[in-house]
Amino acid sequence: MEPLEHLAIIWCGVFVAIFAARKTKLTPVLYYLAVGAILVNTGILPAESSPFIRGFAEVGIVVIMFALGFEETTNNFLNSLKRSWGIAFFGAVAPFFTAYWIADYFWQDTNIALMCGLAMTATAVSLTMVSLKSEGLQTSPAATGIMTSAVLDDIASLTLVAILVPVAAGDTALNLIDIEWVLGKALLFFGLVTLLGTWIFPHIAVGMLARIPLIRRFGIKHLLSFADGEQTTLSVLTIAALVGILAHALGFHPAVGAYMAGLVIKEEYFEFLQHPKVNYYENTKKIVDDIAFSWIGPVFFVELGTKILLDWEMFVSVIPQTVLLTVCLIIAQISSAGLAARYTGRFDWHESLMIGFGMLGRAELAFVVIDIAYVQNNILNTQAFYTLMFTAFWLNIAVPISISWWKPYFVRRKGAG
């Protein structure tokens, strides 16, 4: 019964977070994180979550990312790639070297500096997109630019983790074959997703696939129309889970796969389900959003907040490192991503700064890197571990606050444009 009790406590905390968010006009995500930190440091929740809660939270982030991808259109994502490469590159290089140099200054250890750089490189796309959604900005060009850039950053970060962690741990030497293997898996994953969205899902097969008997006659509409369309939500969530599993098998976070699955499922696939009073696409989207943003998704953010364990002596000892790293990362991230958005992506200034604010978050991959480097391989020392944890927490808080603060100007400039 204990895991169920913990889930009930988390859900009660979600109610409190939503109430506080409504009163302060801030995104609930900020309060989900705070609730998790408060619950774990007051002893109400354990420092080590049960496998049930961890699994529940993992499902939450996968569903959140699928829901966000489900709202986006494939064409917008692909078109955004051309505008987002600079944001992804410069928006990752700047925080990597910022964290690397600061860590090297404090601890004079190349391996620690490398892990700090990696942990502070990948953007928390879920946190940013949920924050944008709460402000009604999730479908703006800036949001698409953030999402595209963040996905590219995640790929690059995972590639570097796979290459550099064994080197830093002393398990292997850096070699060209390992690099080619990791890059090959990335290309394979996105190639398979492209194949899925371009040729497998559409009801009318094209090219060579039109000659294959099964594929040329069946598409995703047959799956969605199962049981007269009553199981469309089950169908799309199953697809999200399967593509997430594929992503994980190739070394990526399942949430990246879930987002790509949502991206390639088009609204037009639901048009065959004709009913005078039922819009199956809108109904499915509503159910998916309810799952993602009301009762499963929030558990992920509360669970994320429980990673912040406050040890007073340790907290005091890492204040200089945390303050310097946080301030420098905020400046480096906003300026690099914002300038890249303006001059390589040709976004307007109000969009460029929104992209810079949206790239501040550090969550999923940051904690994956921290876990690998501190728990599994003992590369990080205790001070570096807490510095990264506290820095990630403050960066996450900065995302909804900065987006909410910038929204009025952003909306005015958008209307004027």
Could you give a short account of the major beta sheet? none
The assigned structural class equals mainly alpha
Order of helices and strands: HHHHHHHHHHHHHHHHHHH
Q: How many structural units, i.e. domains? A: 1
Low-confidence stretches: 205-209
Question: What is the number of helices?
Answer: 19
CATH topology value: Na+/H+ antiporter like fold
**What is the CATH architecture assignment?**
Up-down Bundle
CATH class: Mainly Alpha
Shape: globular
**Proportion of beta-strand residues:** under 5%
- How many strands in all? 0
Between the first and last Cα atoms, what is the distance in angstroms?
56 Å
Mean pLDDT: 80
Radius of gyration using CA atoms only: 21 Å
Percentage of residues assigned to helices: over 70%
Brief overview:
The protein is 76% helix and 0% strand. It is built from 19 helices and no strands.
Model description:
The protein has 417 residues and is an all-alpha fold. The chain contains 19 helices and no strands. The protein has one domain: Na+/H+ antiporter like fold, CATH 1.20.1530. Helices cover 76% and strands 0% of the residues. α4 (74-107) crosses α7, α5 packs antiparallel against α18 (364-376) and α11 crosses α12. The longest helix is centred in the last third of the chain and has 35 residues, at 382-416. The radius of gyration is 21 Å and the shape is globular.
